[in-house]
Amino acid sequence: MANFTLYTPSEQVASHLRAEIIAGRWSGTMPGAPTLAVELAVDSKTVWAALNLLENEGLLISQGTGRQRRISLPPETTPSALRVAILDYDPLEQTEDWSISMQQQLAEQGHSSFFAEKSLTELELDLGRIIRLVGQTRADAWIICSGSREILTWFAQQTTPAFALFGRRRELSIAGVGPDHNSAGRAAVRRLLELGHQRIVILVRDSQRAGGPGQAERVILEEMAAQGLPIGTYNLPGWKNTPEDFHRVLKELFRVTPPTALIIDEPFLFHAAKDHLAQRGILAPKHVSLICTDPDPTFAWSIPTIAHIKWLTPPIVRRVVRWTNNIARGKNDRRQSFTKAEFIEGGTVGKPPGER
Question: What is the pTM of this model?
Fold first, then answer.
């Protein structure tokens, strides 16, 4: 008679869970014993014992009482293919170079990625609607583009791994990446101050203003305040996320006390603002200095050249891909990183009108 091994119930459960973990059934953290007991239709004590066996193997790592165990796959384990949902800020991001490159490189690593049915702006940044969308979407991991503080806080609290691509992620327990706008923004505003500008206005969309100025905007405002300039809503005006309201706020800004410099977030807003002002005979840098907070390939075709904050997309994309592979291997990757950014002084920056 051939030798055979008789496994205890907890060992049988551990064997099943081990195979499921390695197959990529769960990533990041492991469901608790009560949840698994219901799913497997076995006693909770048996599941607890099985989880303890996997802890002793090093496949699971305890994170303390009341917290889910962290999955720790061996380094040689082949990463599982993940289904990654991308929650973009608006559909425009789907055509950005970094967005296309990110999807291509994720596919090369064996993962499948897709855009959620609606973007943050289409959901009106409403957390309740976002939660419903997430609940209706089958995904192993989420990438959130330019999320507000409220939205990223919610994602950071979920068991499904999430990654903040740009957005207000500082000091949250969520993985993320984005250019270091702080140092570059500081350099940009210092240059404006050196040239004599005193009426500097920052134009950013809703998510950057929700809950107060974002870190990049605060740095700029702090630099202005350090020079004794008065700071208020004039410097960071509010407007609804519509073309009509964007043009309304521009018209209002130049109606009585026009700014001498505009720092504009995102290239499409920059182009819209530049076109709006040109139609009214307001030109850069003759009447106003213009700076864009992001690079854009079209800037190379502009005369005068466009002042902007330059950052490269490859380091951003590489970090997203590394994070996805780490999650696929069972690592609880929540590291945030910032890539290099620099202020490029183009021809749209000059001295304020009357000081030339």
Answer: 0.75
Query: Where do the DSSP E strands lie in 244-354?
Result: 261-264, 289-292, 307-311, 336-339, 341-344
Sign of CA dihedral 170, 176, 180, 185: negative
Alpha carbon distance 13, 49 (integer Å): 9
Q: Domain of 127: which CATH number?
A: 3.40.50.2300
In terms of domains, do 270 and 297 share one? Answer: yes
User: 260 and 117 in one domain?
Assistant: no
| Predicted confidence (pLDDT) per residue in 218-265, tens digit | 999 999 999 999 899 999 999 988 899 999 999 999 998 899 999 999
Phi, then psi, of 46 in degrees rounded to 5: -65, -40
The CA distance from 276 to 165, in Å, is 30
With a CB cutoff of 8 Å and minimum separation 6, the contacts of 47 are: 10, 13, 33, 36, 37, 40
Pull the structure tokens for residue 137.
């979407």
